Amino acid sequence: SARVSVPVLWDKQTGMIVNNESAEVLRMMDTVFLELAEHPLDLYPEPLRDEIDSLNAYVYDNVNNAVYKAGFSTRQEVYEREVLSLFAALDALDERLAERRFLFGAQPVETDWRLFTTLVRFDAVYQIHFKCSLRKLVEYEHLWPFVRDLYQWPGVAETVDFDEIRAHYYLTHPMINPSGLIAVRPAADWTAPPGRAGLGVLAATD
Q1: What is the reported pTM?
Q2: How far is CA 196 from CA 143, 184, 189, 204, in A?
Q3: b/e map 29-50, b = 16+ CB within 10 Å
Q4: Average pLDDT, the chain
Q5: Domains and CATH numbers, the chain
Q6: Three-class SS state of 5
Q7: How many CB atoms lie under 10 A from the CB of residue 3?
Q8: Plot region of 187 (φ>0 → left; ψ -120 to 50 → alpha; else → beta)
Q9: How much of the chain is helix, strand and coil, in % rounded to 5?
Q10: Distance from the Cα of residue 71 to its chain's centroid
Q11: Mind listing the pLDDT tens digit for each residue in 144-189?
């Protein structure tokens, strides 16, 4: 059978999958389905679309996909190169967030949520399981409160199950974790106030 993946956009009337590419589903929810939203939030504002597309590509190549390139490396020099590249990107994003609440200002856009999906798993999975071990997320001055800010956004925390996340990764990659042991979840207070509400204005970057 074909490979099963999530998320999927499912058409209940036809009983068919419309799309299973997460980036495209996100974009569809924010454009063609926006008028159906109970609490609409524009994650792809017209004045910022070119910049959002550019930063989306950067985050995907250097963060979202980079953890996998490091984690599945089988040569030491490749692994080290990928890890250094990943943390160079995290350092740059941390600096970007020094004076803005979110990546483009006071409101989150697509790019913030695309980055969130990697950061929320970082210390519990990628830092240990994929050996992205140069630094922990909680050591970052701005990225750590930034991801807590998104985690505490209404409706988000209840969608994050750290036990399920850890079980999935540690139990489905026997080539990386042949023992099947699940690493103990690192201590971190995801409910601590982020203290970022006064930062940033939604505007095009310089």
Answers
A1: 0.87
A2: 11, 29, 16, 19
A3: bbeeeeeeeeeeeebbbeebee
A4: 89
A5: 1-40 (no CATH), 44-206 (1.20.1050.10)
A6: coil
A7: 5
A8: beta
A9: 50, 5, 50
A10: 16
A11: 999 999 999 999 999 999 999 999 999 999 999 999 999 999 999 9
